[in-house]
Amino acid sequence: MLRACRLRSFTWLLAICFVLGVTTFGLGAGKAAAAGSVELYTPYLELSAPPGDSISYAIDVINHGSSTEKVGLGFDAKGNQWNEQLTAGGRNVSQLAVKAGETQTVNLELDVPLEVNKGVYRFEVDAGGVSLPLAVDVSEQGTFRTELTTDQPNMEGHSDSTFTFSATLRNRTAEKQTYALEAQAQPGWDATFVDGSNSVTSVEVDPNGEKTISIAVKPPETVKAGTYKIPIAAGNNSTSANTTVEAVVTGTYDLKLSTSDDLLSTDVTAGSQRHLDMVVTNSGSSELKSVALSADTPSGWEVSFEPATIDSIAPGGTSHVQATIKADKKALAGDYVVNITAAAPEKSADAQIRVAVKSSVLWGWVGILIIIVVAAGIYYLFRKYGRR
Length: 388
Fold this sequence. Notes:
2 helices; 15% helix; Immunoglobulin-like; alpha+beta; 3 domains
C-alpha cells in the first residue's frame, strides 16, 4: 500500500516535471529563435582614417528565420558629433524587409570631423534588436587650419621673364572659406593671381577642399641680377596661410643701336650708295648672342650689312657693323627714312636713319653744257647773219 502510494506520487512528479520542462524549454527556444533570426555583418569592425576623411561600411542584414523580417535600422553615435548616413540603393533608409534566408546590404557613411582629437571612437548600428559595434581610429590630431603650398617655389629667368608659380590652397576647416590673396613684392614688381583664366584677388574654397591658383610675377625693367623672395598670403579673419616663392634673375638684357658719330642722318644721290658705321652696344648685364641686323627700306632701296649677324656681345661691349644704303635710281629728291634693327633672342633695338636724296650732279653739268651749246649757237648765228 505504502509502495503503491510512493509509486503514484513519483508518477505525478514526473508528469509535472515533464509539463514544466516542455513549457519552459519549448517556449524559451521559440523566443530565442525569433530574437536571433536577424544578424548584422561587416568584415571591417575598426578602420583608421585621418581628420576630414570619409569612411564607408558595407553592412549585411541577414535573416536566418523562416519568414520575412521587418527590420528597423538605427545608429548610435555614442555622443560623438559626427555626420553619418545609412543608405541602400542610393537613398537614405531607416527600415528594411528581409526575406527568409536572404541578405540585404546597407551602407554606412561616416565623416570624420576636421576638428577632432586623435584616438578611437566607437559607434553602433542597430537592426531589429541586434547591435553591430564599430570603431574608427583617428590617426592624427585634427586642426582648424589653411594650407598654402607650391611644388616649385624657385624659378630662374632673365629680367624680361614672367615667373609663373602654381600654388595649392587647402581649406582644412568645416566651413566654406573666402581667402584674400596678397603678394608682398618689392616696389616695381608686378604680381597677379590667376584662377582658371581669370585674374583674381580672392578665391572661395569648399570645406576640406582645395584650389589651384597661378601666381604670375614680373620684375621691373631696371631689376638687377639676384635672388628675390616674394611672400604670398591667403587669409581671412578666421584662418590664413603663407608661403614664399623665389625669383632668380640671371641678368638684364638691353641693346642700343646708333652710328659711330651718333648722327642718324645722311645724304645720297639717286642710284648711288652710302656707307654708315653702325655701333651695336650691349648695355645689359648678360651676354647677348646671335644679334642679327635687318632693315626696313623705301621701295626700290637696298641695305646690306657686314657682318649681317654678330655672334656674341659681352655685357657692356660694342660691335661695329658696316651698313651700305643704296638708293633707288628713280628716287626723287627729298627725305627718306631707313629703319635699321639689331635683334637678339632676348632684346632688340632700332635706329631710324633719315636719308636726304639729292639730284645727280651729272645732270647739272649736262644742263650747263646744253645752255653753253645753245648760247654758242645763237652767237654763231648772230655773227654769221647779223652783218647782212
